[in-house]
Amino acid sequence: MIAIEGGPVVTAAAMRAAEQAHGDLTGLMERAGRGVGEAVRRLAAGAEVLVLCGPGNNGGDGYVAATYLRDMGHRVRVACTDVPRSDLAKAAAARWTGPVEPLADVRSAAILVDAVFGTGLSRPLDATIADPLRRLVEAASLAVAVDLPSGVATDSGALLVEDAPGYALTLALGALKPAHVLQPAMRTMGAIRLVPLGLSAHDLSGAVAMIAPPRLAAPDPDSHKYSRGMVAIVVGQMAGAARLSAEAALRSGAGYAALYGDASELGPAAIVHRPLADMASLDDPRIGAIVIGPGLGRDEAARARLATLIAADRHPLVVDGDALHLLDPATLPDRDCPVILTPHAGEFKAVFGEGSGSVIDRARDAARATGAVVVFKGATTVIANRHRAIVHPGGNSWLSTAGTGDVLTGAIAAMLAGEHGTPIEAAAAGVWLHAEAGRRCGTSFIADDLATALTLTRASL
């Protein structure tokens, strides 16, 4: 049972393919069930365990876990929804020599292990299963889901059961699945930990991965403010939004942040204020990234500024806020300098339409269409380019306050200007810093507090 940062996120079909490529399916089930049993034994502290088994291979994992717990001298009972149907599940069930109770009538236990349905469920959960399952989960002191809670759609994260119960722990088998990182499924899972199965990294390699803390080096002895990255922010109608981005860029590690336009001398004295007589003012070759969008406005002057920056193709761009509503995505694929787009759901729809599939699918489709890195912000944030995606599941719900998106934009721009990896890696580093700063802020904070928290967050790496 290990932490999940940085690991691959694979679909149900990809997981089945990896298991088939491995070949030893019996050995995989043995490792899965034993890993679940070991985790439960450590957490149960001697309390009675009830293992619920379904008819498929997830149920087989449950029978293996129950057998392991019994062999270790633990008090364990088994209930099932139906007789095992797969050959693997039949073989696993044959090793369990105790009684098997019907799900509908079984009494609750302090520790509940749900091995009814795992990866691959696509139909709504029948009430004859959903109702007793909910009763048993709610009665347990500790409820553990094997791979996924029963009633979760693996690839979309949709809930296939009404009033889905909440688990304390979900043990992902072999690799994370999309439902482990997507809402609404994720909110039912509690803590998520990985049970390794010995599948090869090559077989599990995919285009989607869980975010991990970035590796950001400290400035070296020869560093100066420009080598650490200069961020330029175009000021629009709401100068406070641009100021938040500038402060966030500095506190994330940029060496220089300049507001171009009338910002009324807002913000820390470390922020430089420069006039913006025309867009040629931004031709400075020392600029490492330009931010346009926070508080920009949506008038024709704002549209012209955005179009000029895109056409000039002289600097990496971070496009956010109002600029996303003015953006023509068809102007992006031919650019040489990287572009990072940071839309929330409303802005995403304005640029790309509704799209289809999960937020992962939609972000990847948008990145392929534009050649940009797309940071699709939300309950799960997806950072995607044409070839891969990185997901950051969840965060502090108190981030839902004005200005926090402007802070994220500044953090991403600092990573891009400082050349912290490829553009997608720079964007992911900014997302991680922003989320960690939000965690440090706790509750009831404002965007200014979040920007300030980036200082200690950056220092922690």
From TrEMBL:
Its EC number is 4.2.1.136, 5.1.99.6. Keywords: ATP-binding, Isomerase, Kinase, Lyase, Metal-binding, Multifunctional enzyme, NAD, NADP, Nucleotide-binding, Potassium, Transferase. Binds 1 potassium ion per subunit. AMP binds at K377, G378, A379, T380, T381, G405. Residues 10-205 form the YjeF N-terminal domain. K(+) binds at N58, D114, S150. Residues 210-461 form the YjeF C-terminal domain. (6S)-NADPHX binds at residues 57-61, 118-124, 147, 241, 295, 344, 406. GO terms for biological process: metabolite repair; nicotinamide nucleotide metabolic process. The keyword Lyase applies. CDD domains: YXKO-related. Homotetramer. PANTHER family: ATP-DEPENDENT (S)-NAD(P)H-HYDRATE DEHYDRATASE, ATP-DEPENDENT (S)-NAD(P)H-HYDRATE DEHYDRATASE FAMILY MEMBER. This is Bifunctional NAD(P)H-hydrate repair enzyme. The lineage of its organism: Bacteria, Pseudomonadati, Pseudomonadota, Alphaproteobacteria, Sphingomonadales. The gene is nnrD.
